[in-house]
Amino acid sequence: MKKDIHPESYRPVVFKDMSNEDIFITRSTMQAKETIMVDGVEYPLIKVEISNTSHPFFTGKAKLVDTAGRVDKFMSRYGDRKRK
After folding, report:
1. Residue 24 main-chain phi, psi, to 5 deg
2. CA 45, CA 22: separation in Å to the nearest integer?
3. What is the pLDDT of residues 48-75, one digit of tens each?
4. What are phi and psi of 17, to 5 degrees?
């Protein structure tokens, strides 16, 4: 393994799945703007749209996950180009 290429600033961070409010604590180097209290300890908070607790592959439930409205945004931006 190469030396001096891995970051040294690993620390406990809370990742929060915004689709089902599930949280998990792991070590990360990601920078966070928000914090959260878990069991009386304050951790940096990283918000994610989907995790293993809400992903259809892991849950076995097929559901449409389009929280940002990507399809609508695409259609409003590009629409039907053939009509013009």
Report:
1. -145, 150
2. 12
3. 888 777 766 666 666 555 666 777 777 7
4. -80, 115
The position carrying tokens 């406990």 is 12
State pLDDT tens for residues 3-57: 888 888 899 999 998 888 889 999 999 999 999 999 999 999 999 888 777 766 6
Q: Where are the domains of the chain?
A: 9-77
C-alpha distances out from residue 51 to 16, 19, 55, 64, Å: 9, 9, 6, 14
Q: Which of 19, 51, 21, 49 is nearest to 36 (CA)?
A: 21
- Give the helix ranges, DSSP H, for the chain: 56-59, 70-78
Distance CA 48, CA 67 (A): 11
CB atoms within 10 A of CB 14: 22
Contact by Cβ (8 Å): 25, 36: no
The whole-angstrom separation of Cα 37 and Cα 32 is 14
